[in-house]
């Protein structure tokens, strides 16, 4: 008999596990996860939750051992396959801590496939804590129901990222000097895409010229107002998702 959740799946806590999940596997959460489930969520024997691994989709798990020092969860049912994510990259110049954390969190919620910090001439922040940003990605995925984590890439220079730009991928860059309407540009260019957002001070003339030399580059406008870098990144990603992404799909109902 197939195990059924004690509660509707969409009301159960979700937990990311960094190992491949399979039916009847026993999972031992790390110390921080165990503390959260036992001390905050008050988990006990028989409590259920949804787990996902960024590989095989999401699964129903049930606590089979719980005390102050130990927590074990048994996988009892496969709920959903790993979702297909729209092929959108977000390339954004690093900004202050807190604001960059917010970009990564919201980009994951929106469904962005890959996020890459891009170092430009006017970038103020030159160090990026990828481990902290990855933690924000995981937390966002747990909260929003994603079964596929946004990929977090190493920081690289604008010159490096443009050097081998994929032929099939459109590059929409937010150009403060003006460009096509974002929605119009996306509508005319379907397929894999990337959004490039500069730092607080914008791109230099030299950088703008370098971007224009990429055949796939499309300067776009995000409206009549001057947007902060973090606002521009999320606004552009939302416009792409609404126009060419998966926002037309209905939310998953939990069980297959």
Automatic annotation (TrEMBL):
Q: What is its EC number?
A: 2.1.1.193
List, for all copies, the residue spans of the domain called Ribosomal RNA small subunit methyltransferase E methyltransferase: 87-240
Q: Name one GO cellular component term.
A: cytoplasm
Q: What are the record keywords, sorted?
A: Cytoplasm, Methyltransferase, rRNA processing, S-adenosyl-L-methionine, Transferase
Keyword field contains Transferase: yes
Domain Ribosomal RNA small subunit methyltransferase E PUA-like spans what residues? Answer: 30-76
InterPro entries, A to Z? Alpha/beta_knot_MTases (IPR029028), PUA-like_sf (IPR015947), RsmE (IPR006700), RsmE_MTase_dom (IPR046886), RsmE_PUA-like (IPR046887), tRNA_m1G_MTases_N (IPR029026)
Q: Which CDD domains does the entry link to?
A: RsmE-like
Pfam families given for it?
A: Methyltrans_RNA, PUA_4
Catalyses: uridine(1498) in 16S rRNA + S-adenosyl-L-methionine = N(3)-methyluridine(1498) in 16S rRNA + S-adenosyl-L-homocysteine + H(+)
The alphabetized list of GO BP terms reads:
rRNA base methylation
Q: Per its record, what are the GO molecular function terms?
A: rRNA (uridine-N3-)-methyltransferase activity
Class of this enzyme: transferase
Q: By its UniProt entry, which NCBIfam families does this protein fall under?
A: PRK11713.3-5 (NF008696), RsmE family RNA methyltransferase (TIGR00046)
Sum up the protein's function in the record's words: Specifically methylates the N3 position of the uracil ring of uridine 1498 (m3U1498) in 16S rRNA. Acts on the fully assembled 30S ribosomal subunit.
* Annotated family: Belongs to the RNA methyltransferase RsmE family.
Give the protein name, as stated in the record.
Ribosomal RNA small subunit methyltransferase E
Source species of the chain: Zymomonas mobilis
């Amino acid at each position: 008999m197939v195990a059924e959740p004690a509660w509707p799946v969409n009301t159960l806590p979700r937990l990311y596990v960094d190992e491949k999940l399979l039916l009847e596997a026993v999972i031992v959460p790390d110390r921080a996860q165990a503390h959260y489930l036992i001390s905050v969520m008050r988990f006990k024997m028989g409590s259920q939750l949804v787990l996902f691994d960024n590989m095989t989709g999401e699964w129903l798990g049930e606590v089979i051992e719980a005390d102050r020092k130990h927590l074990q969860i048994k996988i009892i049912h496969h709920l959903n396959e790993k979702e297909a994510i729209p092929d959108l990259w977000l390339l954004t110049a690093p900004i202050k801590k807190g604001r960059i954390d917010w970009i990564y969190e919201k980009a994951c919620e929106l469904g962005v496939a890959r996020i890459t910090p891009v170092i430009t001439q006017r970038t103020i922040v030159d160090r990026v804590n990828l481990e902290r940003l990855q933690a924000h990605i995981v937390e966002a995925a747990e909260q929003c129901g994603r079964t596929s984590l946004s990929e977090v890439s190493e920081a690289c220079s604008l010159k490096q990222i443009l050097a081998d730009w994929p032929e099939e991928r459109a590059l929409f860059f937010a150009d403060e000097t003006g460009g096509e309407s974002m929605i119009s540009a996306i509508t005319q260019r379907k397929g894999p895409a990337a959004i490039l957002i500069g730092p607080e001070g914008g791109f230099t003339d030299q950088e703008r010229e370098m971007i224009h030399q990429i055949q796939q580059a499309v300067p776009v406008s995000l409206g009549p107002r001057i947007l902060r870098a973090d606002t521009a990144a999320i606004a552009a990603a939302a416009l792409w998702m609404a126009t060419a992404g998966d926002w037309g799909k209905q939310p998953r109902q939990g069980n297959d």
